[in-house]
Structures are given as C-alpha cells and as structure tokens.
Hints:
Blueprint: H1 20-52
Protein name: Amino acid ABC transporter permease
Transmembrane segments: 24-43
Organism: Candidatus Halomonas stercoripullorum
Amino acid sequence: MSVRPKAHTTGPKPPFWRDRAKRALIFQALLIVAVAVFLLIIIGNTQANLSARGITTGFGFLTN
Length: 64
C-alpha cells in the first residue's frame, strides 16, 4: 500500500508590506516623490529670492 503525497497547499497570500519586491518598489517611489518635492521647494525658494532682489537669470550676458 503506497501513501499518496499530500497536495502542497499554500496559505493565504501575505500582505503587500511583507513582499520584499513590492516593499522595495514602494520605498523607491516614496524616495522619488521626496526628491521631487525637495527640488520643487528649492527651485521655488531660489526664484522667489532672486526676484525679491531684482536679479535676473539667463544667458543674455553672452550677447554683450
């Protein structure tokens, strides 16, 4: 009499924060968003400070 092997059953799917690949994608997306927000704040602050002091930017000095 042979014993039939039991079918390998998997339990419920683990939550996404336990999946290493999904967690890595989420952290990378958050990092990209944080860097983009940081750059927008820095650029906006620089533009506001330059306009408050009447400093113009550009390459117009090359035509003098």
